[in-house]
Structure formats: C-alpha cells, structure tokens
Amino acid sequence: MIVSQKLTDFYMDAIAPIYYRPYLQHNKIMALKAPVHQFTNTQAIRITRRDFFYVSNILSAVRLVTVPFIFYTIYSEQWIFAILCGGVAVITDVLDGFFARRLGQHSELGYILDPVADKLAIFAGIFALILSKSTFPFWAFLIIVTRDVLIVLGNAILAYKAKMITRSNLWGKCTSFFLSIAVMFYLLRPIMPSLSNNIEFYSLCFALVFVGISTVSYANHMFRVLEETQN
C-alpha cells in the first residue's frame, strides 16, 4: 500500500503535469488524486463532424432514440415490445463502449452522449413502470432520481467553479447496466409469472448497491476537484 501510494504521488507530481499541463494549470488541481481522465475540461470540449460517424456514438444515439418507445410501450403495457426496446438499449449500451475501445473512437461527444442516453433510457423505463402501477417500488425510484439529480447539480457546480465535469466511470457504468437488468426483470414478470419469486426485487436491490457506490465515487471526485481549486 505504501509503495502504491508513492507511485501514485510520483505520477501526479511528475508525470501527470507533463501530459495534462493545460488542464492542471488552468484549473489549479496539481494535487488532484482522482485520475485526470475521469474529468473533462469544459473549455477544451471539441466536437467535430467526424465524431457523429463513430460507431460508438451512433450506438449511443440509437439508445437515445429508444427512450420514447421504452416509455410508451411500458406505460401502455405492451410488454413484448417494451422488452425489445429495452433489449436494444442494453445491447447498445454494452457495444458502444466496446467499439469505442476497440476502434479507438473516444470523443467528447461520446463522453456526453453515452451517460445522457443511459440516464434517460433508465429513467423512462422506471417512470413508466411507476405510472403503469407495476410492483416497482416508488422509494427505489426516488433514490435513483435523487442520485441522478445530485450528479447533475454537482457537475453544474464543477463546471461553474472549476471548468470541469465528471465522465462516467466504472461504477457509473455498472450502475446503469444492473439497473437495466432489474427493469428487464420487471418487464418479464407479467408475461413470465413462473420467474423465481422476487427475482426482480432482488436484482433491483443489487443494482441499488451500485447506485450507492457510484454516488459516493462521484461525490468523492467532485469534492477533491473543488477542494484543490480553492487552494
């Protein structure tokens, strides 16, 4: 642990300033412990025409298009079509990250489009489940919405004070994935009553664990940035 900490300190003090000097100097976060790649400098965002043709961004855009269909099919209790739309959203969520890494298609557009599509798709599905009077618990809906609102507000504060916004990290992606799986189980219940008892509720509770972890992770990184920008 001591060696690991020394290596981290050496990276942040000696290596990171070389590669990320414009970001670090401008935002005064020379001692930032959170990895720099988890943040985007709002003044350095550049979206080009080429970004719109990246496979990863096209997949994120497809997921964004499914949002109204997810809401409508669940609200109208067209469970088969709802599952199909939800399946498209889950598959594109998995594949966009894969292609971004495999094809080297990382872009500022993707960093923005991917988490927005995730949040809207999940919110549409859960909100429609609440309105359709399913067994999805309202308290869980409030927890999820509160978490997303806090992240949005936190990023707004970061953008104003530090000219930075957080990117989706591993915990955030896990949260989106497991919440999507939980929603899918709630959609399957009406047409597959033989599913294991309460499997949808248990999968939701498992996803909520990641909701808590990701909230703490984002909050920790945000507070570190704000703390360092005040020094």
How would you portray this structure in words?
By secondary structure, the chain is mainly α. The protein has 8 helices and 2 strands, in the order ααβααααβαα. It has a two-stranded antiparallel sheet.
Summarize the structure.
73% of the residues lie in helices and 3% in strands. With 231 residues, the chain is mainly alpha-helical.
Describe the structure using short key phrases.
single chain; 231 residues; mainly alpha; Four Helix Bundle (Hemerythrin (Met), subunit A); two-stranded antiparallel sheet; 8 helices; 73% helix; 3% strand; disordered N terminus
Topology:
Blueprint: H1 2-19, H2 21-27, E1 39-41, H3 55-75, H4 79-102, H5 108-131, H6 138-161, E2 164-166, H7 170-188, H8 199-229
Antiparallel strand pairs: 1-2
Strand content: under 5%
Structural class: mainly alpha
Count the strands? 2
Indicate the multimeric state.
single chain
Number of helices: 8
Percentage of residues in helical conformation: over 70%
CATH topology label: Four Helix Bundle (Hemerythrin (Met), subunit A)
CATH classification class: Mainly Alpha
The overall number of domains is 1
Question: Could you give the order of strands across the largest sheet?
Answer: 1-2
List SSEs in N-to-C order: HHEHHHHEHH
Mean of residue pLDDT values:
81
Q: Radius of gyration, Cα only, in angstroms?
A: 20 Å
Largest sheet, in brief, is: 2 strands, antiparallel
Q: How far apart lie the N and C ends?
A: 27 Å
Overall CATH architecture: Up-down Bundle
- Low-confidence residue ranges: 1-37
Could you say which overall geometry the principal axes of the C-alpha atoms support? globular
